[in-house]
């Protein structure tokens, strides 16, 4: 995929500048949705199947995702490449901007607040965890639960608290 110009911002926007591409990456990264059906049914924004199929093809062609081989009747599994993992700081920066400048719900903001409060070391640890999950890299030692477990636990705790209040 050749960019329209040599500008690095243009080259990135041509791959990542579409809202659906970023939301698919968000769901692969933070939701661990790696199959077409999981991405389709788990999309809170309601992505259409034809749009999802197109974005997955584009992300694979751009080297952001890989598509695992699937035999007839099997589902293909998508995995992040190193380039895909390196989008995590970009997604975090967009999320931080959204926290500061756009309305949202506390429930859907909780993970972003944790990442912002934890800082760059947390983002690096998250990228290391994604390398283990997607690239079969050896795990790095750390104390306690990993970053994805911490994010999911915070979300679950918030949801449980809201349910208790209702």
Layout of SSEs?
Elements: H1 8-16, H2 19-31, H3 36-41, H4 49-61, E1 65-67, E2 78-80, H5 82-85, H6 88-101, H7 106-118, H8 120-135, H9 147-165
Antiparallel strand pairs: 1-2
Description:
The protein has a two-stranded antiparallel sheet. It has helices at residues 8-16, 19-31, 36-41, 49-61, 82-85, 88-101, 106-118, 120-135, 147-165; strands at 65-67, 78-80. By secondary structure, it is mainly alpha-helical.
In a nutshell, what does this entry contain?
This protein has nine helices and two strands; from the N terminus they run H-H-H-H-E-E-H-H-H-H-H. It has helices at residues 8-16, 19-31, 36-41, 49-61, 82-85, 88-101, 106-118, 120-135, 147-165; strands spanning 65-67, 78-80. The longest helix has 19 residues, at 147-165.
Average pLDDT rating: 93
What is the number of E strands?
A: 2
- In terms of DSSP E residues, the strand content is under 5%
Major sheet details: 2 strands, antiparallel
* Estimated structural class: mainly alpha
- The end-to-end span amounts to 50 Å
Low-pLDDT runs of 5+ residues are none
Name the descriptors.
globular, mainly alpha, single chain, two-stranded antiparallel sheet, 166 residues
């Amino acid at each position: 995929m050749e960019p329209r110009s040599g500008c690095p911002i243009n080259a990135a926007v041509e791959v990542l500048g579409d809202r659906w591409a970023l939301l698919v990456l968000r769901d692969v990264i933070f939701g661990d949705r790696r199959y077409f059906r999981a991405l389709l049914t788990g999309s809170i924004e309601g992505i259409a199947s034809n749009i999802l199929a197109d974005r997955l093809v584009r992300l694979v062609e751009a080297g952001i995702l890989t598509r695992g081989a699937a035999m007839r009747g099997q589902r293909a599994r998508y995995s992040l490449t190193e380039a895909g993992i390196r989008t995590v700081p970009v997604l975090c920066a967009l999320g931080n901007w959204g926290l500061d400048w756009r309305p949202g719900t506390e429930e859907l903001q909780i993970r972003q607040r944790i990442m912002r409060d934890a800082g760059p070391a947390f983002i690096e640890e998250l990228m290391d965890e994604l390398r283990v999950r997607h690239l079969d890299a050896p795990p790095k030692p750390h104390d306690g639960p990993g970053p994805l477990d911490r994010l999911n636990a915070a979300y679950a705790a918030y949801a449980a608290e809201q349910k208790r209040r209702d």
